[in-house]
């Protein structure tokens, strides 16, 4: 049976934890402007009509400079007071390597942490270091944006 693996990346932040979390919670549409080297385009899909993240809301994210790599995610758990949201990847390029992939964002004063849990399709599939690097880079861009 395939094993669930877990990796995380912690990004130090100097901006307000509440403001940082709000970008992901209510203002994800700003990500292409805040982090253009990482997020090419983001759109609401599958009947989702508000940018405010709620359980069941879905987005399609195109990332990298050419916007060719993409994924669709769904919010599966959200705790705004705790500044914590969990997303499940439903489809996209990364699913060539993983049977399941979910990411949890937790923001505290001084730190934005992404934890990913994944099941590889087989042992030769790569760890999701590429995606963790992207998440860390987006976090740094959000922090810089909010400090302006």
The coarse overall form would be globular
Distance between the termini: 49 Å
Q: What level of helicity do the residues show?
A: 10-25%
Class of secondary structure makeup: alpha+beta
The radius of gyration computed from the alpha-carbon positions, rounded to a whole number of angstroms, is 15 Å
What fraction of residues sit in β-strands? 35-45%
Could you give a short account of the major beta sheet? 7 strands, antiparallel
Q: Please mark out the parts with pLDDT under 50 across 5 or more consecutive residues, or reply none.
A: none
Output mean pLDDT.
94
> What's the β-strand tally?
7
Q: Count up the helices.
A: 3
What letter string, H or E per element, gives the SSE order?
Answer: EHHEEEEEEH
Strand order of the main beta sheet, please?
Answer: 1-7-6-5-4-3-2
Describe the protein in words.
A hairpin with a 5-residue loop joins strand 3 and strand 4 (69-79). This protein has helices at residues 17-26, 31-34, 129-147; strands at residues 5-12, 39-44, 58-63, 69-79, 84-92, 98-108, 111-120. The relative contact order is 0.24. It has a seven-stranded antiparallel sheet with strand order 1-7-6-5-4-3-2. It is an alpha+beta fold and 148 residues long. The protein is globular, with a radius of gyration of 15 Å. It has three helices and seven strands. Helix content is 22%, strand content 41%.
